[in-house]
Every structure is written in structure tokens, then in C-alpha cells.
Amino acid sequence: MKNALENRALFRRAFVDSLPVLMGYSTMGFVAGVLLAAKGNVVLAPIWALLSSALWVTGTMSIAGVQPISERAPLYAFALMTLAVNFRYCLYGFSLLKRWKDVPFLRKCYLILMLTDENYALEASCVIRDPGRNLRYCTCLSVLNHSYWVVGLTVGASVVCLLGLTVDPEAIRRYTNGMEFSMAALFIVILTDQVRGILSHGR
Amino acid sequence: MGDEILYMLGVIAVGFTVNFGLRALPFVLFGGRDRRIPTWIDRTSGFISPVIIAGLIVYSYSGSAWRTPWPYLAGIVTIALQVWKRNPLVSIVAGTAIYMLLLNCCGCATARTVELDAAHPSVRVSTQGVLFGDEFVEPKDVPEILEDFDVPHERTIHILLDPDVKDLRPARFLMATLSRAGYTRPVLVTKRHAESVNIGKPKKTVYSGSGRQGAASQKRTIRYKKAGE
Known about the structure:
The structure holds 2 protein chains of 2 kinds.
Chain A: H1 2-39, H2 45-55, H3 59-64, H4 66-70, H5 75-85, H6 89-92, H7 105-113, H8 117-124, H9 131-163, H10 169-175, H11 181-202
Helix pairs in contact in A: 1-2, 1-9, 1-11, 2-9
Chain B: H1 2-30, H2 39-62, H3 70-85, H4 88-106, E1 113-115, E2 123-125, E3 130-132, E4 135-137, H5 142-148, E5 156-161, H6 169-180, E6 185-190, H7 191-199, E7 206-208, H8 215-218
Parallel strand pairs in B: 2-5, 5-6
Antiparallel strand pairs in B: 1-7, 2-3, 3-4
């Protein structure tokens, strides 16, 4: 009983922390989905939107990758582009090595898959000391952020396909113009807290 | 159809492999149960994440209108709120709202871009007069406008000459004005030339006035606003 209550509290905490990501991911994902369906020159776009959002979980490539897909670029070129664009991802794991040392294999794989910019920033700044609770918090956060991204992209691609409209990605971009700042603001807030932590720790 | 699906499956698989591989790299290198995590990682891991996050701030700023003061103002508000109230959601929502407000209400002048390639000349001489983008301008003002867009003086400036223009005096006047203002390479091009360049998929160079924001949406209709308008 106590455990269930604690889990609910952890989930609520993760949800509140993920709200800024919800703002960014749903709009960015929607735009990426619309782009893929409208400009990607592919059949069954919603399925590709679903698969790519679930398995890649990268905003940059979901948007930047539409152009090479529409031109049917060779797979090795696509791999090189992903490598260049997302090279930063290989740095994130270092600060989490110790914390996730004893996490079971499959769960660790899922947490690693979800090392996106925003998710990493929230996980790295998590102050929960207890390893078990910290891990549950990270998992909740990953699942929530993953779902925002997958839903955003799939809905975006489906809207274009099902309604048969050519939703102009530019129009959406105009209405949500500036909303991408929520990501920068999230990073700023996290850095502010970290700097404050370091300052008070050093004193 | 079969090929299409195979190609997309390949793209998904490649994207997954590279992204997941990059993310898993540290764990593969140092994550084995029996392997010890090197002490340098242990010692620096406390500082790795602030440094990465600082990098992410720079990275996300590069995607915003970083040439305008708005993202910095919004950033200062975000920091101030966070120091004062310590409520991340409030700081983030307020910072984003202020940024969107500033960008969309005061930032009209930020979404200005100009293209000067032979394939997409922004300056055009028609029978009615000189156009910049799709607005008529005084020929004598053109150097000043280019100045506003930070177009370097040594840049070749393509000026499209409409085929039905018989009177070449405005065009000549424009060329002379440009050279007098220090633009060393103004070039007149005809429509046929512009189209022939267009075939070979030209590399577009876009100069923006004071922000990258909205550059894509402004490509079709280039508007120029004078300061204080």
C-alpha cells in the first residue's frame, strides 16, 4: 500500500517535470510527422512515423532526415548523416554509468534508447538519492517523454494522410513560432539549479 | 511498392542502429559488471552534465532567433524566475511565453531574408520600376537595404532584368548607385540566364537581416520593412 502511494507520488513528480517536454515534443513531433507525410514522398507515412519515432527518438533526424528520404539517399549516407548530426548522444551515458550499473539488461536498454537531450537533462539533474526510486523516476520520465514524441509524430503523419489535406508544415510552424524556446528554457532552468547546487556544495 | 517498403525498413533500421549505438557506447565501453569504471570518469561525472547542458543551451539557441535580443531577454527572465521562485514549470512557461510574445509581436523585423543568387535574384528591374523582393523601392535606396541585410560588399549582386524593359536608364542608375556605395560586383541577368542556372540545382545563399527565425517561410514573399515602420 505504501509502495503504491510512493509510486504514484514518483509518477506525479515525473509528470510535472515532463510538462515542458510535453510542450516541445508534441508540437515538434507533430511538425516532423506532417513533414514526413507531406514532403517525404513515402507510402504508409503514419507507419513510418510510428516506427521512426518509437525506435529513433531523435528530433533532429526526424526533421533533417525527411530530405534524404524523399530523395531516396543510399542507406550508408543516411547512417553517416545520423552519425554526424547526433554525435552528441555518445557523451550522455558517461555521467550515468555509475547510477545505472546494476539496472537489469532490458530496462537498461530502454533507458539508453531514451537518452534524448531533454530526457537526459532531466535524468542527470534528478536529485532523488535512493537508487530504486531514482530508477523508477527515470523510467516514468522516459515512458512519458517517449509517448509524447510517438503520439506527436504519428498524429502529424496521420492527419496529412487521412484527411488528404496538404497541411502546410510552414503554417503550423507559424502558429507555434517560438515554442521551441521551451527546450532552451528547460536547459537553462536545469543549469541554473545545477550551478546553485555546485555553489552551495562548495561553500 | 515492395521496394519502397524495403527502403523505409532499411532507413528505420539504420537510424535505430546508429542512434542506439551512439547512446549505448559509454555503457559498452565501461559498463560491464566486472569492469571498473575509470576513475577519471568517476571524478569528472559531476561536471560532465552541467557542461553538456551548457552546450545544449548554445545548441538550442542556434535554432532560435539568436541575432535578435529576444532569446537573451527571455533567458534572463527564465533564470531570474528560477532563482527567485524555484519552480521550473513557472520559469519555463513564462520564459517561453515571453519569447513567443516578443518574437511574434516585436519581431516583425526579424523575419527578413534576401537571396541574391543568379537563380533567385531579389533585386529586379521591371518596366514599372525597381523591385526588392516583391516591393517597389527607390533605386537609390537599394544599397542601404543590402546594408541592412549584412550583404558583404564583395558579394556578386544579381539583378534580374525583365525582358520587356526597353529603357535601360533605371538599370544603369542602379548599377552605378551600387558601385558608388561600395558593392563591387553588381551583375545584370536576364530571365533566361536565371532559369538556366536554376536547372543545375544551385546552392542558395540566404542572407538574413537580423534573425534566422522564419527564414524558410519568408523565402516566397520577401518583405522589407524599414526601421520604425
